[in-house]
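Posting here for the record, re: 5-O-phosphono-beta-D-ribofuranosylamine.
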Amino acid sequence: MGIHALLAYRVLFAFSLATQPPLRYFRPTMTKPKIGILISGRGSNMVALLDAIGEGRLEAEAALVISNIETAAGLERATERGVETLFINHKGRLREEHDREMAQELKRRGVALVCLAGYMRLVSPLFVREFKNRILNIHPSLLPAFPGLDAQRQALEYGVKVTGCTVHIVDEELDHGPIVLQQPVEVRDDDTVETLSARILKQEHRIYAEAVGRVLSKGFRVEGRRTFFE
Ligand code: GRF
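Prediction output follows.
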């Protein structure tokens, strides 16, 4: 190679280096686990989950919100946040039939975890089987105390000094499956059902997103009634 050719080659080489796009770290595109949320009413726990996702505190994608009540305020709140919603009426149908339709819609969208958020119906054994250990519920008491309706009123009437909220895995029995996370809330002397419920609800919103994150994480496991998170 002559001296001119060598110089030209060097100039070209230096130029090609200078015009290279900057090196970027390779970032694999990770698909986030999809969650589905079942509601029957105002959906404040659903909003807490959607906000946690929106703010990057919860690595998940909200694929679908289903309500069994057409007028549930939560449906509009989900739509406002750009999440697909479905109303699936349970009236006049067998529980299994209704649940089978919900399971089909959730599975069609690749939902990995179902979160009950004020869903005011028992789910059928069929639904529990379809999403084994993959259904969560939030309940406004420290389970196993005060299962069922009006947990905050039950706590006040019983006279406990501490109550709280629980996120648990849903099994065939009401408010019964393995516990994922709990948060105690003090009962004050001047509490009414409303004031106590409001303080518990604030904690519900906080622990639900945290519990969903735990269950979706790699190290989560269930052994009998106990759950573990690494
Ligand atoms: C919450 O208190 C939840 O613990 C219970 O039902 C209520 C639903 O409230 N399961 P929201 O619809 O999430 O506002």
